[in-house]
Amino acid sequence: MNPFVSTVSTHAIPPQAGYIFMVIFAVLVLAGVIGQWLKRKKGADNPTIANLNARVYAWWIMTIVLLLAFWFGKTGTVILFFLISFAALREFLTLVYQRRSDYAVMVMCFYLLLPVQYYFVFTEWYGMFSIFIPVYGFLLLPIIASLSGKTEQFLERTAKTQWAAMISIFCLSHVPALMNLHLDDFPHEQNVLLLIFMIAVVQSSDVLQYVWGKTVGKRKIMPSLSPSKTVAGTVGGIASATVVAVLMSPITPFSPVQAALIGLVICLMGFFGGLVMSAIKRDYGVKDWGNMIQGHGGMLDRVDSVCFAAPVFFHIVRYFWHG
């Protein structure tokens, strides 16, 4: 496709997506009622109940934002994830960088790599979208870093920047890129359902791992990386989210078996993504990437699993269902 041809769409989301959001809102209402009942019964000072209510509140905000973005189609979705990438990149670089000499590198990430990558998504220029950061970005960032003349920990500093660009920009940009796919026997205008499927399955895995871990989880799975994750919580959450994937298969081009396999893969990638991002936080001695979202920490704390799941999901769909 010509990279200078863009398509701006503003339209209502597909009916299937509307039903899904209605179910989500109903679940949030129920969770809010239960949370307030537990608050009155157990007391406002109970940390578990307070965390539950904060999470429900945060999910209300995030769900409404997603609904508004999807309502405006491809344009709204690209803008939303551009802003999410910006927030994630800011959190990542704020944590890992302290040197003034690296200022030019950070400027390059924010004002060149980020907007250009999302320009390629918006204009459906897949060739450049897929190689811009892994090739040109990876070559450019160390060049800019070397121009500072500072050689102390040069390789470490360069790797941090490249990793920030890969996670916060490249990986996350695969979410709105799903809107560009042209699949066999699946209407292009319903591609937003692919986003909803991927986000719903991965995020439900996170939530269900938390629920299973709090109810039956005892044995820690990786206490040095994520003290709150348990074996029962992880297995139960991923298995339950795989069932969610099967239940959502009618809105996708996948059969129930295919949806189960894809759901399992992206849930596992989300789980490993959470471990990797937790390892980085532990290395720097922090619990959360930030405090942007009440009850959920920073933006990266919410999208760490999506960062790892989105590229895998995108390429599975593109390679096996692309028309």
Which tags fit this structure?
single chain; 323 residues; mainly alpha; 2 domains; 10 helices; disordered N terminus; phosphatidate cytidylyltransferase activity; transmembrane helix
Structure summary:
With 323 residues, the chain is an all-alpha fold. It folds into 2 domains: 71-180; 184-322, no CATH class. It has helices spanning 15-42, 47-71, 73-96, 103-122, 126-146, 154-177, 192-215, 231-247, 256-283, 299-321.
Structural write-up:
The chain contains ten helices and no strands. Helix content is 72%, strand content 0%. It has two domains: 71-180; 184-322, no CATH class. Helix 4 runs antiparallel to helix 5 (126-146), helix 4 packs parallel to helix 6 (154-177) and helix 7 (192-215) crosses helix 9 (256-283). By secondary structure, the protein is mainly α.
Helix content: over 70%
Strand content: under 5%
Order of helices and strands: HHHHHHHHHH
Low-confidence parts: 1-10
What would the principal axes of the Cα set say about the shape?
Answer: globular
**Tally of separate domains:** 2
Number of strands: 0
**Class from helix and strand fractions:** mainly alpha
Largest sheet: none
Topology:
Elements: H1 15-42, H2 47-71, H3 73-96, H4 103-122, H5 126-146, H6 154-177, H7 192-215, H8 231-247, H9 256-283, H10 299-321
